[in-house]
Amino acid sequence: MRAALLLVLVPSIAAAGTYEIGPGDDLFGRLRMLAPGDEVIVHAGTYTTPGFFEVAWAGTEAAPIVVRGADGERPVIAGTLAQNVIDLSGSYFTLRGFELRGGSHGIRLGSTDHAVLEDLVLHDLGDVGISCNRPGLACAAITIRGCEIFDTGKAGTGEGMYLGCNDGDCAFTDAIVERNYVHDLGGDQGDGIEVKTGATAVTVRDNVIARSRFPGITMYGYTGAGAVNVVERNLVLDAGDNGIQIVGQVRVRNNLVLGSVGNGIHSKASQGLIPDDVEIVHNTVVGAGGACLKTNDWALATTTGQLIANNALYCPAGTAVDLNGGAPAARLSANVGLGASTAADGFFAGRSVEEDFDDVAALDFYPAAAGPLHGTGDPMYATADDFDGCPREEQIDVGIYDRTVAGRAWIVAEGFKPAPTCHGSVGPDAGPEGEPGSGRGGCCDSGARGSGSLVLAIAVLASRRRRRATASTHGRPV
User: Which of 108, 180, 371, 471 lies 20 to 30 Å from 58 when distance is taken between CA atoms?
Assistant: First the structure.
């Protein structure tokens, strides 16, 4: 009798289950009942939320929860404009392979850790694509990978991603945002990827951001201890403001920024933080409406650790380098380009865009073999890898590429940037302060290169306008 009573009092441990959901099944009821180790496989169809839908998934490291679209299918979760499509929180879970549309935020994270959002298409939204911005609720160890976000801001600010809170009221930390395609954003702001104050150990890499209304990538700073943030190997096209906007505690390296309405890269104080510990190296910026590279507030007395090196900065009709207010403690070395410069040293004039790159009309910004970018970089400040993830050799080139016989690994185009194929380990925990690994490998397929002009290249970029859902790549590489 006593043994029987104990069996009643001690709850049984449910075995992890696999659940197949199709149209007509109660998807949202199932999502409210998940236990560690559960997997939910959802088949094609449209699943309309019951209005406000909030769920917390408590997976574990040993038994994560997985909710995914069935292989080869992309189910649709449709929301209503008055509510977020999904309000989601928890630990150790993966959400993969869905299309989310029609709500306010596509996914709004609450207190969340060790989560993966992958291969999602988010569009036709009242406000933000993916957010972690509930005051007091932190997001840590998050991976956002391979997602397409567009057509946002029908009734709000419209960022592709809004990660963290103003003035550090919530924090987004120890995270990776990689290989996403964020484009054609609306709203009254519409940053591409915005990482707010207080973020530490966040890496934003290998993303393509096109036609954001505000900066393509925004990265604020933090106070106190923490691992620096990294913005690397991204392609930013036709930003309606600055291409990349940062404060400090950040490494900005190997990014290609084309046709920004504002500055290509801009570092300035914001939300009470000043540009300490900021390195801007091996980027290529072409055709910005403002300066290719601009700084503000770098002359503040406490500012330290500022570096601008090995960048290709081509704004021939305007300003290449604008150190607004001065930067007496900054190190500048081996920057090359066209346009005016307020730097006392560390910037050298190129010849022309057509001569210094292989084929700008084809978005080919490989350094010309006999040009001023090839072999003129400062090895002291060289990154281990280049824009393609290929290792830099002893002869350091200026800008995003290390010129090799094999040529570029990826032909630059709109759509998803593929995973680097020529690099070793990279990411927040790959080395001190997120430094990339120095893995070696053969750089891959070369692209056809011919002749062209900056005017034509920027005209091609500017001619691309807002896409609708029918023109979307729907989460698949192009």
Answer: 180
Per-residue pLDDT at 435 = 36
What integer best gives the mean pLDDT of the chain? 87
Q: Which residues contact 301 (CB under 8 A, 6 or more apart)?
A: none
The length of the chain in residues reads: 478
d(CA 117, CA 147): 8
Closest of 91, 85, 145, 89 to residue 120, by C-alpha: 145
Segment 232-255, tens digit of pLDDT: 999 999 999 999 999 999 999 999
Tokens at 262, concatenated: 């504002």
Residue 111 is predicted with a pLDDT of: 98
pLDDT tens digit sequence for 425-468: 333 333 333 333 322 233 333 332 222 334 444 444 444 333 33
pTM: 0.89
Low-confidence ranges of the chain (pLDDT < 70): 1-14, 301, 405, 423-478
Cα angle value 305/250/392 (rounded, 5°)? 90
Q: Which sign does the torsion angle of CA 410, 416, 417, 418 carry? A: negative
Cα–Cα distance measured from residue 370 to residue 403, given in angstroms and rounded to the nearest whole number:
11
- In the prediction, which pLDDT does 301 show? 67
